[in-house]
Amino acid sequence: MNNILEINHLTKTFGGLNAVSDVNMYIEKGELVGLIGPNGAGKTTVFNLITGVYRPNEGSILFDGKSIGGLSPHRICREGIARTFQNIRLFKNLTALDNVKIAFHKEVNYSLLSAVFRTNRFYQGEDQIEQKALELLEIFQLGDKRNELASNLPYGEQRRLEIARALATDPKLLILDEPAAGMNPQETNALTELIHWVRGQFNLSVLLIEHDMSLVMGLCERLYVLNYGQILASGLPEEIRNNPKVIEAYLGEEVTKVVSGS
Amino acid sequence: MELLKRNPAALFLKILILAGIFSAIQYMISFKILSTYYQMTLTTLCLNIILAVSLNLINGFTGQLSLGHAGFMSIGAYVSVVFTQNLDAPFLLALFMACLGAALAGLVIGIPTLRLRGDYLAIATLGFGEIIRIILYNIEAVGGAAGITGIPKLTTWPWLFGSVVLTILVINNLTNSSYGRAIVSIREDEVASELMGINIVNYKILAFIVGAMFAGLAGGLYAHFFYIIKPNTFGFMKSFDVLVMVVLGGLGSTSGAVIAAIFVTILSTVLQSFPELRMVLYAMVLIIVMIFRPQGLMGNKELSFKILRRKRGEAKK
After folding, report:
1. pLDDT of amino acid B61
2. Which residue of A has its CA nearest to B188?
3. Lower CB count within 10 Å: N or C terminus of chain A?
4. Residue B209 sits in a domain of what CATH number?
């Protein structure tokens, strides 16, 4: 099995609206894939279906050969999919360290009674979690911010903390929802490098939604274009860039005529 | 034993303070320095601490607005009385069964209602409290509207003190663990919490069960101090009183809940000298506190030796 994720005929309707219809996608192990498309195309809906926030109406989602369609989000997380959010969803009133520690909860190796009676096992388990969380914060250059409340961190650091928190769940597939939104070009460049590095370091596959074309073209190995809930095109970044259907979806029909000279 | 290794001074100091408080009050009770009236206030104070700290686990840490705490308390009260009065069971067993009964009620209520959020959960728990009251009202075996009288007075200072310490210890240890962080993450962002691998339904139910359990303990202690229990004692107003303490102390602060419980109990005792203005003054104090400390007396901070040490450290710099 070479595909970490395989999506077949995925469909989601809200009332009469087809938010996502008959979407087929796959991601190979270790691949860095981008999902692009105009606003309202259904990109985030696809993410919500993969991570279990929504239940699909039809179709299957295979993760590492196992069907995860319709599982609850915490089960899917335990299978090894972690994500960040378009509009950052950190635990705002908690410290950066606690944010990461919470994501380590699924590795907790002491029981509830152990916690109440403060056994040796509890202290050892807490030490382990603390140490791992600090290591992760160091990697993302947030070590000295560990006692800051998440809401007090600058925007770029909040984005980094969110990725750190996602990685704490020990995923095989990392899903990033517009990681560069609101970043300036320098920050975007740094982020590109970070994502590249993280993928190698943590042995991940990555799926990301992005509007910033320079990030997408520079980072992704393969792209899917979603429009009106359907896959419009897929392929290498250069192919997508020159695909007339994609240009039309993004810029409108008139422009296509101008671009193609008709 | 690890605790002894890690911070022997703090542990020793805590035990010393607790032993001091316990023996000072025990002395005053034994030598009749505390009048019956003050002993009653002391009991109310201890029960309020147990109730506020346990409700704070549900409302403050988990962020689930529950208005049915008195319902759990009444289950504890009635169960314990049945055990001591009808079955001649020892007090310890009766209290244990009170906790168990209330915890079971917490589980039964928790499973269907915790799918609800915010206002809807508040209404459902409010309804639960009323249902319990009405059911007790209509069971003749437990006295119906008249309730049960002539309950043996078994709640003494050591029981009260032990129960308060146990409640604070268990809830504090729970919230300062990975399980506690999971619970707090639900309050912060349910969706993110679940996507980080936390089974939010289980932890909401856990918080409900533990919170209900200690409310049951408070109920058992209440019944065996005040001789008489009636369904109306555990009405909506009782739940509301506890909620006021939790909000006043600061949602998500155990020490805040303790301080607010002490504050509210003393305030309403003092105000009893002005019966006609009592509720007006009580409400005014609450409004003033909320204007100047909207986050509650403690916010979500805890009073601990660590804070004191940090403050001292900063002062040195």
Report:
1. 93
2. A91
3. C
4. 1.10.3470.10
